[in-house]
Amino acid sequence: MAASTGLSGGMKRVLVLVLIFLAVASVISSISIVQRLAALDRVSRYNLTWLLSQAAHESLRLQEMIGAAALPGSQIDVDDVTLRVDVLRNRLSLLKGGEAAEFIGARPDLKATVDELSASLTAVEGLVDRLPDPKIAVRMRMLLEPLVPRMLQMAAAANQWSGEKVAMDQHDLSVDHWALTGLLLCAALVILALLYGQQRIARKLESEMEQLNSLFQSTGAFFLMLDRDERIVMVNQALRDFRGDGDRDMVGERYSISEDGGLSPETAALWQAASGSEVLKPAEYETRAVDVAGNTRIIKNTATPIQDKDGRLLYIVLIGVDDTERRQAEIRLFDASRLANLGEMASGVAHEINQPLAVIRMAADSLHEELESEEAHADLPALFDFMKGKLKRISLQTDRASDIIRELRTVARKPSDEAEPFALADAARISAGLLSEQLRASRVALSLELPEGPGPTVLGQVSRLQQVVINLVLNARDAILEAAPPEAVGILGHVVVRVSDDREKDIATIFVEDNGAGIPETVLPRLFEPFFTTKPTGKGTGLGLSISYNIVRLMHGELSAENRSEGGARFRISLPLAPSDAPDQPGAMHSTTGFASQDGATPDPAGTTDERTALAAR
Amino acid sequence: MPVFFAPRILIVEDEAELLDEVASYLRRRGETVVTATTCNEARRILEDDSKPIDVLITDARMPDGNGIDLIRAQTERIGDRCICMLMTGHLEESQITAELHKVRIFHKPFAVLTLYRELRSAVAGTSRKRELRLDHEPVVSAHGE
To answer: Which of A358-390 are b and which e, b meaning 16 or more Cβ less than 10 Å from the residue's Cβ?
Structure first.
């Protein structure tokens, strides 16, 4: 999916910055406001203008008072004057601090004035003691006289100055105010833009989810998603319909993946326990399921484990495909190939059966003639011996013919779907036996190398494996014939069928080797591809090896090919050994081991206990 | 009385039972029979001029070669003087070459009596030829008088 559900990293950073800025701005403006309030407070309390005008007023009063004292016959209250002088001194001292200091410090002329006033006042203070001397009063009044207008001037200047200051403050405050408002608006716009962006992403996500959902629901494949507790998280319509649960939700229900016959409990346990950097791989397996109509379908499953960033199992995704039709087509193809093989073998087998028939014919005719001749009747004991000999021969040859037919039938028989244990060596011997005549006709020698005793047991369908061996031996013969020069005489080549088992690795192997031309390196990797053939057009379908490959694979084995260092090719069929505790199926074993025990007394070319080169000797 | 000779018959067949049937049948009727189970063995016997073979009865397919090759070799060596017979289970058209047109072919399974009759008539034919040739030479014959 293109967008995540949360904010992207960049957007988050922007939002955080905006919020920090807002916080800082509000702190600053709060401090500003508090400062202004303080300032206003000061302004109202220590208004400089008021201070100066008050001082001026006080001076005037004092002046008047002293003036009155200069007049003859006046009564001066010296205490009152002292008080007034003190008050004035007090006022002047106030001019040294606070806002006054700021104001006066900026203007040296005012400073001079204050100093002068202070000096005058000091002089006046010195003279107070000598009141009510009218001359003193006059001197005092002369000292005080310039104070008032000066103070009034200062007051006026202070007034102006204060006004300017307040105006500046107002200006600053309104700038701050507008700046803050502007920033708040910007912040609001940014947030709105982010929200809008989020909305768009959410809508896009929704539409993608809808697409995905319709894809997921409409597919014919079965889709199931489980969490690590094996509860259903998602299930699609196809699976619901298959199970006939069309209306049930199924989400939240338990679904055991190892119970449906598929995922092995070991693998399931492995996935549950995974952690860290272990990468889990998907598992493929086949199951059989009964659909709502009661039909058994073969389902090809893939279970994919999804891990979280700590490597633990998060989900299991199960996808199933109904493989039934394909498998049925595959089986039909196997059967068609088997019948084609049989057709090829037919003439060879017919020839083989002719041998015992020829002997039977001759023995019977011979016996008949003997019985009709008069000379023979003269010596009855000899006649009886002759008869017994011929009849025994007829009987044995009949057995031989029926053995050949029985062997043919194991290959011709349509195999069951179930896997049964069977002896690999027997299967190899029968297949090779059925082909011996044909190979002899083509002047190709065929020999068998089988293990002592019954040999390894594997699981599968006997006739299918025989089909594979027949296919490989016929291919080997063709390879030899192709490589042989046209004027060659005698034996053209040799095909060996060898069975061995490796009990340590629990595998049994059949080798089919020839001394033909070998497989070209360019062909080797494509050998088992369907429809790939090196035969000229019209000869061979190119399906034989791919069918053989699939048959062996379905038996959980492997078919491979390589060139021999001595020249020619070696095909190898590897199959897992049947578990040793698997019960032998009487039917299957009987039909294949029936040939293993031959009456050793009668030399019988078809399947003697002397396995080695038995067929080549014929 | 016509001169008739006892032909030496060589039977070549790798199947022991079949070989025994044919050989014992002929021997019981007084024929001189030599047997071989492989082409090589047969060739040794055929090339032994001290004991010439007059009738060659051979199987077609054997582990070390083909009976048809034996017949061909024998025909090239002594031509008409050897009677050749082929026993076979199956013969493809392509294998019936010109040199086989004088060869009697028996398809298995066949009645051994038939083979015997063919054998005797062929031998009789050859006998007459031998008889005729003897006319041109000093005769040591048993003409009945």
So the answer is: bbbbbbbbbbebbeeeeebeeeeeebeebeeeb
